[in-house]
Amino acid sequence: MSPARRALPLVGLVGLAAILVARPLPSGAQPPPGATVTPGALQTAPATPEDPQVAQGRYLAVVGDCEGCHDRPGGTPYAGGLPLRTPFGTIYSANLTQDRETGIGAWTADDFWNAMHKGVRRDGAKLYPAFPYPYFTHITRAESDALYAYFRTIAPVSYRPPANKLPFPLNLRFMVGFWNALYFKVDDHPSTGPSPGRHIVEGLGHCGACHTPKTFLGGDKNDHALEGGQLDNWAAPAINSDVRRGLGSWSSAEIAEYLKTGRNARANASASMADVVRYSTSLMNDADLAAIGDDLRGRPSHAGPVNTSLKPDPKLMARGEAIYVDECATCHAVDGKAQPGLFPPLPGAGVTQSTDPTTVIRFILSGTQTVATNARPTPFAMPSFGWKLTDDEVAAVATYVRNSWGNVAPAVGPSEVGKLRGKVGKPIQKPSARV
Ligand code: HEC
Ligand code: HEC
Ligand code: HEC
Fold first, then answer.
1. Is the separation of the CB atoms in 78 and 97 below 8 Å?
2. Can you name the residues that pair with 83 across neighbouring β-strands?
3. Angle at alpha carbon of residue 202, lines to 197 and 208, rounded to 5°
4. Which of 3, 31, 143, 408 has a Cα at 20 to 30 A from 55?
5. pLDDT tens across 2-12, in order?
6. What is the DSSP secondary structure assignment for residue 343, as one 8-state letter?
7. Which atom of ligand 3 is found nearest the CA of 385?
């Protein structure tokens, strides 16, 4: 075998890591204040009672966030075609309607089970792990059959998603086999145990897709489950019992409130969590949300204690404080306590103190908007500062909020800000320079 041929699987695997970090492009469109937020799954809910298996499948589709990836802006629900962005190219979600040619209308319950359980398509080709089968493999056959029964009720829509834009050799589906050998294990005995919360978090809910750190090839670091990961230039914080960086100080009821309404007295949901809340957790039942809360609170952290004696340079802190008072205190208040439930308090906040500062930097550069839900239809927004603050200034104010009011987290450097700005922001335009 020539060296080039031998290198192929490795190059491909590295590329697959990028495919794994695929996430839907933000749908962007937020409903206007006061609008009801109703994804298609509920819009299509029949007025008359439906077959219990179909009803169960409809609910499981919510738990699995199927619409979050299989709806494209302006398209019919479940017709697919949402572009999932990767640094190497784009993968499009599949059409899950009953169209026999372009959707899954010709699929049997066994075909569907093979996709969910093994990541294999009806024609035997391997599916890319941008489809979260490494988590879905934990669902039971009865759950798969209920989902199948529900998808049988989705009216056919003839729509073929665009061809994936992947370079050779990533366009070859058999390459996924190498990745599967390393990182995917078919669950031979899927069950709803040991607890309902764990079954959702590790299975259909696929929370680890974002919240679990990844190996350099994009596989889950399973011994660090839910300790915080990065996907598509968002850092998803730890959601375990870590008191400073995770949910150790949250009650199960507070976790459930965040997932149901998109906010609570401690934090607001936006970034890539917004679609998870919009299409999935805000529509889950209270028992399941409580079970998720119980599971997350019971999760150990292996991250080690934070070195609280680490103090950033006082000059940097003073600079950060001046910017904070000018630009941020109107909403977050000088003491950082803000308006819980409207603007999130910064003292003690997990996202703010996350070891990986990506989300904090990105909020400051690009601004963000809290997800609107039926329970909390008015979305609050944080403006972008990328157009007026330099990389130095963003680094200073980020370091300041991460190390004030009892917070402790590694200082942020201007080069980290510059790198992220290059990926997600516009270059700074500063006619009237602030110095
Ligand atoms: C994180 C995004 C994401 C989520 C969530 C998701 N899917 Fe998908 N799904 C995809 C992508 C991307 C593909 C196409 C993969 C490929 O082409 O290899 C896909 C493909 C599929 C396929 C194969 C269809 C075909 O014709 O090849 C099935 C079946 C499927 N998804 C079912 C589901 C169900 C059921 C749910 C919810 C329980 C779900 N998906 C949730 C991204 C997602
Ligand atoms: C697509 C990526 C993604 C998935 C999937 C995801 N999350 Fe998140 N999650 C995030 C990001 C990013 C944040 C930070 C959001 C913010 O601060 O606005 C977050 C924040 C959270 C928070 C608040 C943490 C804090 O300290 O403020 C909780 C709780 C949470 N997620 C739970 C879950 C659960 C439970 C699941 C699975 C059902 C899940 N997430 C799935 C990306 C994700
Ligand atoms: C107009 C009001 C407003 C202003 C001004 C503002 N923010 Fe925010 N901020 C928000 C809102 C709303 C959120 C919640 C976003 C979400 O849904 O995650 C937020 C979230 C944050 C978070 C994440 C908190 C967490 O842990 O979940 C940080 C950090 C932050 N802001 C820092 C800043 C800094 C630094 C500035 C000044 C450069 C600033 N904010 C200015 C409204 C504001």
1. yes
2. 92
3. 120
4. 31
5. 333 343 344 44
6. B
7. 38
Q: Identify the residue whose C-alpha is closest to ligand 3 atom 40.
A: 328
46: Cβ contacts below 8 Å, ≥ 6 apart: none
CB burial of residue 50 (10 Å; 0-12, 13-18, 19+): middle
pLDDT in tens, 423-435: 987 655 444 333 2
* Cα of 340 from ligand 2 centre, angstroms: 18
Phi, psi of 184 (to 5 degrees): -120, 130
Token code pair at residue 121: 């398509």
pLDDT band with cut points at 50, 70 and 90 for residue 26: very low
Instruction: Show the ligand 2 pocket: residues with CB < 6 angstroms.
Output: 23, 205-207, 209-211, 231, 234, 236-237, 239, 247, 255, 258, 267-273, 276, 281, 292, 350-351, 359
Residue 23 structure tokens: 């996430």
For the chain, the structural domain boundaries read 21-44+51-191, 314-424
Distance between CA atoms of residues 346 and 326, nearest Å: 16
CATH superfamily for 314-424 is: Cytochrome c-like domain (1.10.760.10)
For tokens 């009801």, the residue is: 36
Instruction: Give dist(CA 265, CA 321) in Å, integer.
Output: 24
Angstrom distance (rounded) from CA 206 to CA 218: 15
Give, in order, the Cα–Cα distances in Å from 193 to each of 105, 134, 196, 221, 356. 32, 18, 6, 22, 33
pLDDT computed for residue 49 by the predictor: 75
Shortest-distance Cα residue to atom 9 of ligand 3: 382
